[in-house]
Amino acid sequence: MTMMIGCPAETEWHERRVAVTPDVVARLRRTGLDVMVEAGAGRAAGFPDEAYVAAGARIASRSDVFARSDILAVIHRPDCGRLRAGQIVIGLLRPYDDPAELAGVTALSFEGLPRTLDRARPMDVLASQASVAGYKAAVLAADTFGGFFPAMTTAGGTARPARVLVLGGGVAGPQAMATARRLGASVTAYDVCVVDAGRDEQRASVAAIRDFDVVITTAQVAGQRPQELVPAATLAALAPGSVVVDLAAGPLGGNVAGSVPDGRTETDNGVIVLGAGNLPAQVPRAASSAWACNVAALLEYLMHNGSVVLDPDDEITAGLAAGGHQGRRRRSRSQSRRRGGRSGRRTSRTRRVAGRSTGA
User: Fold this and answer.
1) Which residue numbers delimit the Alanine dehydrogenase/pyridine nucleotide transhydrogenase N-terminal domain (predicted)?
2) Which of 225, 326, 346, 355 yields a CA-CA distance of 20 to 30 A from 86?
């Protein structure tokens, strides 16, 4: 009775990532899983079907992946109409957005991962993808800015380095700062703690930001409206040709007034505003590899003797389940065991989700 993990191709617009890459197939198989990947799922990220087969995975049609998989590894919420009762689905599933769509399955959503726990860090897709986004934000800014990022001496004279301001901490901010510095820019960074800035703070913001050539904003919390850090008055104070990259731009808004997800706008005074949108999808190979490692780490944590074990008293499991395990389990039993020091003793409420034979 070997459990099957399936990886369907992503269907969202502009999404080029894949949740399982060839380099983690062997790792997943060592946990006791068979691996099935939809034909062409990794092509946009630079992973051909042949690479999966060489690593030990099976290539199948989309319908077979959904029908035969006990576990589905995805980036975004999949075609919910294809899900069947008892499946485990792992990804960024927007658990509070029409939860009825996920009824009957066990939805483990990375949005709920308790990120402050040390043992949860290897599973943290929000952190791994934010790191990719921070890198790409700096590269995108350098590509858009009309001047040099590093100091340059040419036959026409010497150009000063670009002045870059990064607003926001977390993971993306430091990565954007480090990348901009590697590109030769003069970088200043601020973590952002002020929620409601008064007029004095706003005037200070305008005075501070207007001297920068590039501003990158990264302040966001998953599922919450981003704080506006660069209002219209601040944009108006920037010099023509300045570039502002809003990494937080999304359906709930952004850090920059008027930013549009996956869009480019230009203010009346010539400031270019880039709404980042899904930046990790623009670095699909690296982002997919990081994501797949996070998935493998999670399954190494959950797998025991060939089955997924879900403990509602465990902080990681409870967080991922986002309000409780939704699925109908084929088999459950009480047990106590110890997980090699990662999470301590499991109580009698531990539940096992058993797999089914998937055939050859």
Assistant:
1) 6-133
2) 346
